[in-house]
Amino acid sequence: MVRIHIVAPYSAMVSVLSECIPLFPSADITYSVGDLQKGLEIALEKQEDGIDLIISRGGTAKLIKKAVSIPVIDIQLSGYDLTRSLTLASKLNEKTAIVGFQNITAGAAAIIKLLHLPINVYTIHSANEVTSLLLKLKQAGYSHILGDVITINTSHEVGLKGMLLQSGKESVARAIEEAIYLIQTLSRQTIINHVMKSLLIEEHRNIIMFDEDETLLYKHFQDFRDPLEESEWSLLHTSLAINESIKEFYTKEQGRLQVRGMLLDKRYKVYVLSRLHPVLNLKGVTEKTIMKKEPVAMSSVPSANRFRLLQHLFKKNEAVVISGERGTGKTFLTRQLHILENREEPYVEIDADVFLLQDLEHLLTKKPRTIVLNQFSIDEHQELLSACLQKRKANSFRLIMHTSARWDEDQLEAWGLKHVHMPVLADRKEDMGDLATFFLADFHQIYGTRPVGITEEAIAYLENVSYKHHIRTLREVIKNATMDEKEYLLSKEVIKSVVETTEQKQTFPINGTLKEMEKAIIAQVLQEENQNQTQAAKRLGINRATLWRKLKD
């Protein structure tokens, strides 16, 4: 039986593969998800296992072709694939461009012209052109970029929203047919012996080798993805030219890492990388190192006004209290504003209930640009607030507080704080269509769901639904609906079915003992608060120690 392995460069392709593979029962077809280097590593492993042929797509397929000795089939983008993605992108109501090589842009340009879509096309001839072109497009006001995996990854790096051009069922099925035909017409390939390489990988999870000309010979990173810059590798090469063994340490977004280098046979430079414990490991502190720019819904006047006000306060480096009910977008907006103002600088979120004040000095050694105090209460955390305000000027960080309660204006003035209150979803219904479209696009990218649009009737229905946790609940509704929808437009009927079947009803044992009813109420509140004991204790009007004791009883 023919053995084929498909390396999907993005996870949303999995659902398409699950539909296509059963159509070819005469072949043994398996699949994995891995882009570029990860995809190459998968392909090398599968070659060692005796796979007859690899199927992949785009840049990942090109990398694999250069490295393996078995045939590789590239999944092509069909006109149908382009039409589907371009139709979805045209509904986002933000300046959008498609960036890719001639094989993508030629067909895309024809479809865009035919359908009168508001999307511009830019053709590249080398992967080296991608970064500079995307930076120019960002300066020109573009927010969304369509393209292959390399283009999308670069888009995220420069702060743009990337949308992947995905291959549909027809394209994948055509590639499998071609693969089976190719294997049947070619003689069986000679299997290269990888025993030594396998032993090397088993011994070292992360290893890379260069020759005397500093040309890459081999790379296997299990814990990292290209952790060092070219300039850093060059410095390491120079150090090895002087010393036959070296050890260096680096702090990267992927964490703290150690690099050990050795010179073999006076020609080959071999480096072994290992992950070290994080520099920042404090109770109640979360450091966000990789955040993506996302579109912000501002069709409603309340949303637009608050976003502009927060932008103004961020630029002035004011200490700000952002209040609002759970799920109104406090954390999302704060992160997006940080990305807009200080994308490359550290962003830290603190759980004010559990953070230890004596750790503040240690935290500031990380030199965060934005510090967010979550679960903040003026009554319980005055000492923490006072310490943060005192340290702000000397350490140049922005201070943001998230709270579910409004503050007295006299308190705000006394502390020198600015205040922005986030409206509930019911007060910003004009944003419903934008939010639904953003979520729809995300789920299409992540899960490969079918819908690429939403009907006006569905949006009108969504505007009149009650959302317990506002935007967070709306997102869950859209997610579940896209999983159920069989058509390309998300309908009112499917959304209505999801809303009606997922509405939770509080049912407590009224015929039990007081203790049994109390346990049922605590369990319900914990479920609604995603098992966050701090939030549950606040809602129940007890402290965390009391809640913990009741859970233990």
Describe the structure.
It contains 22 helices and 21 strands. It has 553 residues and is of the alpha/beta class. It has a six-stranded mixed beta sheet, sandwiched between helices. Helix 5 links the parallel strand 5 (96-100) and strand 6.
From the alpha carbons, calculate the radius of gyration and give it in angstroms: 27 Å
Low-confidence segments, given as residue ranges, are 187-195
Provide a count of the helices: 22
How much of the polypeptide forms β-strand, as a percent range?
15-25%
Measure the end-to-end span.
60 Å
Q: Quick check: average pLDDT?
A: 85
Describe the strand arrangement of the main beta sheet, using strand numbers.
14-16-17-18-15-19
Number of strands: 21
Report on the biggest sheet. Answer: 6 strands, mixed
- Estimated structural class: alpha/beta
Which word captures the global form?
globular
